[in-house]
Amino acid sequence: MDNVTTKVMIGEVRFSYVHLFTPDQIDDSSEPKYSVSLIIPKSNKRLINDIKAAIDIALENGVSSKFGGKKPTGWKSPLRDGDLDRPDDNAYANSFFINASSRMKPGVVKRDKVLGKNALVQITDEEEVYSGCYGYASVNFFAFSTAGNKGVAAGLNNVLKTRDGDYLGGRVSAEADFADVAAQLNDDDEDLY
To answer: What is the DSSP letter of 147?
Structure first.
């Protein structure tokens, strides 16, 4: 585990429950946070091993800083099994997932092909990053002990969108909704514009 830290670049993964531009309050007792659920295919064993190693380090760091000198039993892990925890959601099938959040707004970027292969630009249009698109997330794992709960959480740093994907949650694009209608319209139709 040499050179392993609590910070991991997680990707390429699918994004779900995207709240990157406006913080969202999960329940009445929590403060609003920026967040995203990162869906990680179980086939990406190397990434999963990197995540587990970082979680182990965060847990060990917490033994002295949060857990009173010993590893807690029944501690909560941020790496969850989609087949067990979300069995009715096909987007999480055969995947692990991590819910990452932050009080501070994360940087949200994409590649700019016009400026060059390695050029990144800020995404300001909230519609551009949505539940179902793909990308990378910079995440830092840390130990917590709050209200009797102990474990490791995932702090969200920044996000890189890499490509589009099908919307999750039943939403479809306007192009998909109206493809059949557009094919039936006559270009000479007065009501077209």
So the answer is: T
